[in-house]
């Protein structure tokens, strides 16, 4: 393993304690530095655009907790909402007003969503949406795309992105063969492959699930017309279309990727039937949701026969955090996120070009990532055909200069409304040396 000039003794000591009680020392694999080497930083606090680690070093944070922290860390309005909610109690196990208000906010923002059910993680949201689609159609097969990650649901782990991509696992051990046989995996952005799969097995397919705009193999937006094609093909075969907006929801626009792609006109071919949300809508707390057409949602217990439940679903503190966060997600915020992404992507492009490093920067709203290869990336095979060691060198140079990037070449980078010009300039100042490191 390469020795990195910048050591982190307090993080290393915590890692050693963690390794004794937790596999790999982390509670979610993408947090480990396995793909880039070195010691994962144990963070002790976050303020605005910055994180501080156990050694007292400060970083400009371009991970933002993998998406949720769209306002930056410790936003005062969210802190107040959380404190006020917690002062009234932590969990009631009954319905409460905050969850109604959060549901109303989601329905108001995303036009095709008529009803929602709150859950505690994106994984639960996609798992429940799949069960609902199977219950609604009476069919069992699910179609997904290689490189898309929908949480660690058994049937959705095949050729998944995010940590599964980072660690180059084809699938996960522990998923029964029978379960994997219920999943068809296709290349993203390839409508011919979708047509062919539905021509062959359309009457058995319950749903096609896609990341609205994938961010878990790096950022790979759908080609123009791709989402509409998915809508057309699924509708023609009586299968549901599930748009996974756990990452893009309320991040790419006030109405997520749907708001950006469908714009004022909506989709000519019709909206997706079901959506899944998470990350931003919980404001850093465990809150997620799935929702969509009222006639489909009506199949959920206690109204219908599809069972789904959760002790902490709609938790009053988490929903207060989510609601306070969404209330700050205004057009001004999205304009600022766009400016920050403009500045950073331009700086990346300029300095990687100057250093002669093959690269392409791809973007979806304010989400972006760099692929260390030439040419546009349209699917998972193309995403994998990049020079991962160049990413690792770039990552460690940025880290040593106080910029925290996702420790994987297959992840989106995230910015927040707290990334002011000082923070942006700190990132821009670090890029030239990192570009040189990537060139070596
Ligand atoms: N769907 C997408 C698109 C995601 O990016 C993620 C997490 O990164 C999930 C689902 C799973 O969400 P969670 O990690 O909250 O279970």
TrEMBL record:
Subcellular location(s) of the protein: Cytoplasm
Annotated InterPro entries: 4pyrrol_synth_GluAld_NH2Trfase (IPR004639), Aminotrans_3 (IPR005814), PyrdxlP-dep_Trfase (IPR015424), PyrdxlP-dep_Trfase_major (IPR015421), PyrdxlP-dep_Trfase_small (IPR015422)
Pfam families cross-referenced by the UniProt entry: Aminotran_3
Record PTM N6-(pyridoxal phosphate)lysine, positions in chain: 279
Main location as per UniProt: cytoplasm
Alphabetical GO biological process terms: protoporphyrinogen IX biosynthetic process
Cofactor(s) needed: pyridoxal 5'-phosphate
UniProt KW Isomerase keyword: yes
Catalytic activity: (S)-4-amino-5-oxopentanoate = 5-aminolevulinate
Record-linked CDD domains: OAT_like
GO MF annotation terms: glutamate-1-semialdehyde 2,1-aminomutase activity; pyridoxal phosphate binding; transaminase activity
GO cellular component, one term: cytoplasm
EC number of this enzyme: 5.4.3.8
Main EC class the enzyme belongs to: isomerase
Keywords, alphabetical: Cytoplasm, Isomerase, Porphyrin biosynthesis, Pyridoxal phosphate
Annotated pathway: Porphyrin-containing compound metabolism; protoporphyrin-IX biosynthesis; 5-aminolevulinate from L-glutamyl-tRNA(Glu): step 2/2
Lipid metabolism in keyword set: no
NCBIfam families: hemL, PRK00062.1
Record text on subunit structure and interactions: Homodimer.
Family: Belongs to the class-III pyridoxal-phosphate-dependent aminotransferase family. HemL subfamily.
Stored HAMAP family: HemL_aminotrans_3
Protein name in UniProt: Glutamate-1-semialdehyde 2,1-aminomutase
Species in which this protein is naturally found: Pedococcus bigeumensis
């Amino acid at each position: 393993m390469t020795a990195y000039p910048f050591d982190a003794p307090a993080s290393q000591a915590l890692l050693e304690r963690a390794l004794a009680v937790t596999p790999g020392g982390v509670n979610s694999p993408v947090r480990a530095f396995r793909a880039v080497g070195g010691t994962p930083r144990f963070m002790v606090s976050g303020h605005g655009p910055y994180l501080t680690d156990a050694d007292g070093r400060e970083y400009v944070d371009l991970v933002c907790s993998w998406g949720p922290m769209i306002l930056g860390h410790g936003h005062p309005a969210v802190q107040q909402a959380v404190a006020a909610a917690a002062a009234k109690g932590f969990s009631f196990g009954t319905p409460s007003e905050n969850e109604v208000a959060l549901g109303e906010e989601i329905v108001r923002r995303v036009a095709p969503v008529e009803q929602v059910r709150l859950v505690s993680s994106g994984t639960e949201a996609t798992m429940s949406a799949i069960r609902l689609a199977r219950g609604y159609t009476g069919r069992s097969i699910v179609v997904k795309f290689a490189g898309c990650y929908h949480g660690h649901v058994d049937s959705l782990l095949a050729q998944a992105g995010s940590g599964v991509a980072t660690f180059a696992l084809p699938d996960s051990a522990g998923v029964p063969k029978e379960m994997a046989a219920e999943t068809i995996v296709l290349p993203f952005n390839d409508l011919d492959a979708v047509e062919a799969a539905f021509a062959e097995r359309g009457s058995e397919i319950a749903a096609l699930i896609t990341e609205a705009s994938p961010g878990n193999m790096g950022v790979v937006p759908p080609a123009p017309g791709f989402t509409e094609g998915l809508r057309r093909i699924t509708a023609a075969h009586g299968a549901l279309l599930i748009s996974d907006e756990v990452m893009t929801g309320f991040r790419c626009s006030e109405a997520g990727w749907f708001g950006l792609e469908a714009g004022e006109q909506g989709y000519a071919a019709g909206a997706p039937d079901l959506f899944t949300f998470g990350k931003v809508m919980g404001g850093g707390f465990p809150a997620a949701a799935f929702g969509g057409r009222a006639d489909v949602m009506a199949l959920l217990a206690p109204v219908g026969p599809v069972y789904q439940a959760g002790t902490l679903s709609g938790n009053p503190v988490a929903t207060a955090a989510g609601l306070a966060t969404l209330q700050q997600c205004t057009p001004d915020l999205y304009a600022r996120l766009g400016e920050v992404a403009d500045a950073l992507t331009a700086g990346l492009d300029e300095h990687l070009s100057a250093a002669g490093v093959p690269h392409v920067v791809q973007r979806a709203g304010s989400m972006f990532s760099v692929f260390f290869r030439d040419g546009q990336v349209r699917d998972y095979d193309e995403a994998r055909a990049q020079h991962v060691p160049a990413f690792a060198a770039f990552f460690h140079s940025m880290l040593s200069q106080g910029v925290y990037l996702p420790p994987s070449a297959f992840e989106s980078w995230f910015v927040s409304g707290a990334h002011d010009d000082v923070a942006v300039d700190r990132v821009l100042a670090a890029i030239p040396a990192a570009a040189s490191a990537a060139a070596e």
